[in-house]
């Protein structure tokens, strides 16, 4: 099932009297259950692309359709759509230090108005899936980097989003924890049908994705098989 269709997306920024084009012509279709990786040199626009696709920023031109409905960040409906249907995982975990691991996972449900008791109950179920049942009452500063990223994954998925965008989710982790975090996302894709779009510098991780693209000179290409 088609979740997203991006057509001829362009993104540029004004720099004085000139314009810097970051995305020059991006067309991409994302199907339910896809696991897509995007690689490219630092500064090539990978994060910009995720922000546009995830309705955190608008394209300069082009069309973005979620389930055949056009969205821009200027639409009031896009705020609600993003909170209900899109999840984000970032390189820096952005966990709230004053909340426990379970409370951090539960945060999207609490924001949506679900009771604290029901939200924590759901978060505890995710802690089991994340193999962290014994860490739910721990605060972020008592968790390892890999554990914090697992909590971030649970937070991104607890509201059952259509799609999760992950921006360098293993960038701050050592190779062992990087592999563990990616394997967890792969497990969620296979067992829950979760759709992921992952930006990464790790070619090994990128190569394990179902679809792998390279962002270069503002366009997406399919890298040759080695």
Descriptive notes:
- This protein is an alpha/beta fold and 226 residues long.
- 35% of the residues lie in helices and 29% in strands.
- The protein has seven helices and ten strands.
- Strands 6-7-8-3-9-10 form a six-stranded mixed sheet, with helices on both faces. A four-stranded antiparallel sheet has the order 2-1-4-5, with helices on one face.
- α3 packs across α4, α3 packs parallel to α5 (145-157) and α5 packs parallel to α6.
- The longest helix is centred in the C-terminal third of the chain and has 18 residues, at 175-192.
- The radius of gyration is 18 Å and the shape is globular.
- It starts with a strand and ends in a 5-residue tail after the last strand.
- The mean pLDDT is 89.
Low-confidence stretches: none
Major pleated sheet:
6 strands, mixed
Mean pLDDT, to the nearest integer, reads 89
State the share of residues found in helices, binned by percent: 25-40%
Q: Order of SSEs, N→C?
A: EEEHEEHEHHHEHEHEE
Tell me the distance between the termini.
30 Å
Broad shape: globular
Tally of DSSP β-strands: 10
The rounded Rg comes to 18 Å
Strand content: 25-35%
Would you tell me the structural class of the helices and strands? Answer: alpha/beta
Number of continuous helical runs: 7
Query: Strand arrangement, largest sheet?
Result: 6-7-8-3-9-10
């Amino acid at each position: 099932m088609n979740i997203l269709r991006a057509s001829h997306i362009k993104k540029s920024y004004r720099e004085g009297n000139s314009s810097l084009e970051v995305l020059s012509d991006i067309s991409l279709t994302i199907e339910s259950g896809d696991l897509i990786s995007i690689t490219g040199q630092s500064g090539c626009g990978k994060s910009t692309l995720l922000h546009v696709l995830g309705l955190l920023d608008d394209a300069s031109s082009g069309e973005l359709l979620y389930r055949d409905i056009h969205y821009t960040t200027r639409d009031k409906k896009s705020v609600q759509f993003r909170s209900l249907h899109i999840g984000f995982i970032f390189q820096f975990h952005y966990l709230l230090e004053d909340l426990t691991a379970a409370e951090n996972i539960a945060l999207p449900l609490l924001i949506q108005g679900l009771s604290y008791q029901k939200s924590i109950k759901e978060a505890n179920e995710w802690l089991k899936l994340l193999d962290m049942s014994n860490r739910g009452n721990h605060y972020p500063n008592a968790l390892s980097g890999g554990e914090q990223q697992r909590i971030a994954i649970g937070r991104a998925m607890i509201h059952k989003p259509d799609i999760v965008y992950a921006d360098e989710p293993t960038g701050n982790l050592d190779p062992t924890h990087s592999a563990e975090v990616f394997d967890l996302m792969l497990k969620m894709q296979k067992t829950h049908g979760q759709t992921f779009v992952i930006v990464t510098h790790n070619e090994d991780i990128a190569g394990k994705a179902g679809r792998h693209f390279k962002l270069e000179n503002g366009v997406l290409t399919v890298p040759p098989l080695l």
